[in-house]
Recover the amino acids of this structure.
């Protein structure tokens, strides 16, 4: 038992923790040290983050309330209490988003010659262009609707931008007012580029352009008022796996799907006519606190358009070219290299090309007889998908595709069918479990006559596009023991064939949770015996209560614990009598921190593990995940002496979690030390512009183990 558990609150709220994460992203939009268009991009990301959260998490809470589910969450709040707190937090957050847009970003954009114009600000050339653009491109796509007994309210698509109109028939000036609805075409950009002077960028909101032409669409009506709005619907296709698994066992599927598609949020312009707001609210059956009024464009995620359309490199981060992989001079190719050493890649600082090349060479090399791979998410026109499809024509190719990767279901189904048509054996994993592990295995007849397995194991998806801005780790290896167990994992995925021991791998949901708990307990025993005891764990989220309780116990036993958690963390660090030796930091910057790294000092004999799993119930119990050890000395050294120390030293993009779940900017590592950004340092290191000596001394070499500094330099 955790000491004084009855008197100490053990967990912070999940929803509060998520809102704190999105506020950290918003801080990047507010930060004048970031280039202007990058700030606009960060604001757009907060919008898309919030969209997904509302249609999944908020919708899920509403679903539970309707289903009569009353069990408290991690923080002791029942679903209705959590929903009230979450809704209030979202209202405050939305207000902060629009303050950022109106008070910080819009004025700076104007100073740089990037203007979002009102219709009244258009000059003659811009006016004529806008009129012509409407006639040519917009009007043919519009379908004006008036709501009356013969025309019921249309089925508004999830998150589709629309215009609501208050109308009155001209022939009946004292007659009833009716509602009109026009859906803004999704096929067109939300911002219309207008003619402007060279080097300047003028835009008009598409909905503003449509609004100026409403009278022509509603002849016979007087347009009394108009406002743009958007409805977010329940997209909670699956129960939130972070919640108690007993829910899956006790609630019938019919109850689960009952609210599917119902409206959970109405966004509308702040100055919308109250009658329009009320009519929409009643029609979509939302409460007043589900109406969100924005002081600016509805749907801030669409601001991402500016980042791609405005060709101003001076307003973006400086381009960065990832470091290419250099093979040893004596190597004849990647397979020869892997017979002598493992290769560790840290993306995006190291190029993702070696991973793609590994799969492509497997497809093209006649000596490779078998290929097996998992796919959770990948990119459009992915070279990985193309290589696997090619492999189906000449060798045994097996792919495990996760069909229920949220929001990627349709594309994954298309890829699965295309690969099956090409001769690839396509499986969908174990029933009831998402396949989230990142594994690829090639079986090859090598030149010396031996048959060997070569593997790629990673922390991120097989997606060359996101690999340019997600931080992830890849391990390429021919280690016989690891490769044998990877083979066994594929047997589990395709035939549900379990074995008792997958070591040195941890495999969820079979062995992973207990393996992590065992390692935490081992650190506790080392601390109690006076040996080096330290845990450094980097992940996306920490929600699993059993892991948190084990960390609390280890902290009380004397284990030093440093957690680097980008997003959700309900653990309470620094609480006297509970977690005094636990520190939590979050890094939000240019790249999305996505790698999972687990370091255990182990009494001075350091062990490091990587993998696809966070410390969350869904990863440990509801998905097939794989955690794997790093054994190569150079790879170990790189993580131990370069990657983890850089994250621990960050004073620019790091925030330190407080016991109550709030976050404060990290302070300087030592007196008079210059600011240190881990991501900037790792980019400069990849470019050869700095060395490990740039890491502030208190954070360099987290333990005493000496080693080389890189794993992919040429001999």
């Amino acid at each position: 038992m955790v000491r004084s558990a009855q008197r100490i609150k053990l967990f912070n709220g999940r929803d509060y923790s998520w809102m704190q994460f999105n506020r950290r992203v918003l801080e990047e939009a507010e930060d004048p040290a970031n280039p202007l268009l990058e700030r606009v991009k960060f604001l757009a990301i907060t919008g898309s983050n919030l969209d997904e959260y509302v249609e999944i998490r908020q919708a899920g809470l509403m679903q539970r309330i309707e289903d009569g589910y009353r069990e408290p969450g991690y923080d002791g709040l029942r679903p209705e209490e959590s929903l009230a707190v979450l809704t209030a937090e979202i209202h405050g957050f939305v207000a902060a988003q629009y303050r950022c847009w109106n008070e910080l970003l819009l004025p700076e954009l104007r100073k740089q010659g990037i203007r979002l114009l009102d219709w009244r600000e258009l000059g003659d050339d811009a006016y004529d262009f806008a009129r012509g653009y409407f006639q040519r491109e917009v009007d043919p796509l519009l379908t004006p609707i008036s709501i009356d007994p013969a025309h019921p309210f249309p089925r508004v698509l999830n998150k589709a931008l629309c215009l609501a109109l208050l109308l009155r028939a001209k022939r009946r000036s004292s007659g009833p007012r009716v509602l009109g609805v026009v859906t803004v075409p999704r096929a067109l950009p939300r911002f219309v580029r207008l003619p402007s002077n060279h080097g300047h960028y003028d835009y008009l909101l598409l909905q503003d352009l449509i609004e100026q032409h409403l009278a022509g669409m509603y002849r016979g009506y007087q347009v009394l008022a108009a406002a743009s709005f958007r409805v977010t619907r329940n997209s909670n296709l699956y129960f939130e796996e972070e919640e108690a698994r007993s829910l899956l066992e006790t609630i019938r599927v019919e109850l689960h799907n009952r609210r599917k598609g119902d409206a959970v949020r109405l966004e509308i312009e702040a100055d919308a006519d109250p009658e329009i707001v009320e009519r929409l609210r009643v029609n979509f059956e939302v409460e007043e606190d589900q109406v969100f009024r924005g002081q600016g464009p509805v749907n801030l995620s669409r601001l991402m358009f500016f980042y791609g359309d405005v060709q101003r490199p001076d307003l973006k981060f400086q381009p960065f070219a990832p470091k290419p992989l250099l093979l040893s001079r004596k190597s004849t190719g990647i397979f020869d290299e892997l017979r002598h050493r493992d290769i560790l890649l840290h993306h995006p600082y190291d190029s993702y090309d070696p991973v793609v090349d590994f799969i492509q060479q497997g497809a093209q090399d006649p000596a490779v007889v078998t290929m097996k791979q998992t796919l959770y998410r990948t990119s459009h026109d992915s070279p990985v998908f193309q290589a696997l499809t090619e492999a189906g024509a000449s060798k045994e190719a097996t792919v495990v595709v996760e069909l229920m990767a949220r929001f990627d279901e349709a594309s994954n189904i298309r890829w699965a069918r295309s690969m099956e048509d090409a001769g690839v054996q396509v499986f969908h994993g174990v029933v009831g479990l998402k396949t989230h592990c990142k594994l690829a295995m090639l079986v090859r007849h090598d030149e010396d006559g031996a048959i060997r397995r070569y593997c790629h194991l990673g922390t991120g998806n097989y997606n060359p596009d996101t690999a340019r801005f997600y931080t992830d780790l890849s391990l390429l290896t021919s280690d016989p023991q690891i490769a044998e167990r990877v083979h066994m994992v594929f047997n589990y995925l395709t035939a549900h064939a379990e074995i008792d021991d997958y070591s040195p791998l941890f495999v969820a949901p079979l062995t992973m949770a207990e393996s992590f708990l065992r390692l935490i307990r081992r650190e506790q025993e080392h601390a109690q015996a006076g040996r080096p005891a330290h845990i450094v764990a980097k992940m996306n989220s920490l929600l699993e209560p059993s892991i948190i309780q084990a960390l609390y116990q280890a902290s009380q036993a004397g284990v030093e614990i440093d957690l680097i958690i980008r997003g959700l963390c309900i653990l309470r660090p620094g609480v006297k009598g509970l977690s005094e030796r636990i520190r939590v930091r979050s890094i939000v910057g240019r790249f999305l921190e996505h790698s999972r790294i687990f370091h255990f000092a182990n009494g001075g004999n350091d062990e490091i593990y990587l993998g696809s799993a966070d410390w969350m119930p869904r990863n440990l119990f509801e998905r097939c995940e794989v955690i794997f050890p790093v054994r190569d000395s150079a790879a170990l050294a790189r993580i131990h002496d370069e990657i983890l120390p850089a994250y621990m030293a960050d004073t620019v993009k790091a925030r330190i979690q407080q016991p109550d779940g709030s976050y404060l900017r990290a302070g300087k590592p030592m007196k008079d030390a210059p600011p240190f950004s881990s991501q900037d340092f790792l980019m400069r290191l990849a470019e050869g512009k700095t060395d490990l000596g740039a890491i502030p001394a208190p954070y360099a070499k987290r333990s005493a183990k000496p080693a080389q500094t890189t794993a992919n330099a040429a001999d």
Remarks:
- The first strand starts at residue 114 and ends at 117.
- The radius of gyration is 28 Å.
- Confidence is low (pLDDT under 50) at residues 1-6, 238-259, 702-715.
- The chain has three domains: 31-315, 334-495, 506-699.
